Amino acid sequence: MLPTRQLGTQGLTVSAIGLGCMGMSQSYGPANERDCIATLHRAIAEGCTFFDTAEVYGPYSNEELLGRAFKGRRHEVTLATKFGFRIESGRITGTDSRPDHIRAAVDASLRRLQTDHIDLLYQHRVDRAIAIEDVADAVAGLVQAGKVRYFGLSEAGPRTIRRAHKVHPVSALQSEYSLWERNLEAEIVPLLKELGIGLVPFSPLGRGFLTGAVRAENLPEGDYRKQDPRFQGENFDRNMQAAGVVRDLAAKKGVKPGQLALAWLLAKGDFIVPIPGTKRPDYLVENLAAAAIQLSADDRLALDAALPPGSIAGERYGEMHLAMLDR
Asked: Backbone dihedral region of 310: left (phi > 0), alpha (psi from -120 to 50 degrees) or beta?
């Protein structure tokens, strides 16, 4: 069984590795619901009980999937979901964190998830039109009403985190962090340690790149990585070469490259809980085994040196998504 870790200082305890559920509904090609539910149930059996979704995944269908999968088992799982986008005709048309919209979004998420409370509620992206203090205050009201237990932010910058935390404690920041993407190390990680906020890295396997199994030409139709700048042309070739160091070290230790990448993240601090995504039980079990891998100081130094900050070629998002980041 997986060990647990604490996110923040307010009492949120979760499995040391969670499961990102987005790919069960979008972005990584077609998915079979029966297989996805089997993966979700296998996660619980393995002690992985921290599940990540959002209203915009699908949109809406991912929360509905989890609602069906966990019916009668809600007490066994910790559910995290997110608000913060304006969704029109099934498409994101901007951000929306007006307090009234937050309250309406939470009520809708509760219905889809078939539950009376959300364990961890994130603002999905910072809304520059709405003061973060107003967002935090709205979530505080939902906590007081019993609809939400803990507050989180996603892809928020240092100033936003500080301002939100003064109004209502932030238990977790969800942002991209991995050997592949180390942009948080200069400012965000020290800030989270200072404030006692947990870190939930998404894409901890570099969107599959760090597993060594992804090939640009083999991506299925509907897989958004076909447009990911880091998977294109010369960027892909350079990044595959960089990731080769991880593959070589994993081979020496007798583990999979993805497991080594997750073990590196876990070794960065006990406030870190990665959420690798998968639709398949075999990959799930492989990822969870990373929690048992012990890295020596030399291993960690070798990995730090293998993919230093700024070593990956290409932007991590296209232009539209980059514009939504809070820096």
From this structure: left
- Virtual torsion, Cα 174, 180, 185, 188, nearest 10 deg: -20
Distance between CA atoms of residues 83 and 78, nearest Å: 17
Instruction: Tell me the C-alpha distance between 243 and 268, whole Å.
Output: 19
Query: Cβ contacts of residue 202 below 8 Å, gap of 6+?
Result: 20, 52, 174, 175, 176, 275, 277
Residue bearing tokens 């238990």: 171
Domain boundaries, the chain: 4-207+259-293
CATH architecture assignment, domain 4-207+259-293? Alpha-Beta Barrel (3.20)
Active-site residues: which are they?
57
How far is Cα 244 from Cα 306, in angstroms, rounded to an integer? 9
Q: Specify the residue for token string 């009234």.
A: 100
How far apart CA 115 and CA 125 sit, in angstroms, is 24
- Residue from 185, 157, 194, 149 nearest 173 by CA: 157
Map residue 124 onto helix, strand or coil.
coil
Mean pLDDT, range 18-36, rounded to an integer? 93
Cβ contacts of 327 within 8 Å, gap of 6 or more? 157
CA–CA separation, 244 and 252 (whole Å): 13
Residues counted in the chain? 327
Contact criterion met (CB below 8 Å) for 148 and 117:
yes
pTM of full prediction above 0.85: yes
pLDDT single digits (tens) 258-309: 999 999 999 999 999 999 999 999 999 999 999 999 999 999 998 998 888 8
Beta-sheet strand order (sheet of 170-176): 19-20, 50-52, 78-83, 118-123, 148-154, 170-176, 198-202
Asked whether residue 123 carries a pLDDT value surpassing 70, the answer given is yes
Say if CB 264 and CB 326 are below 8 A apart: no
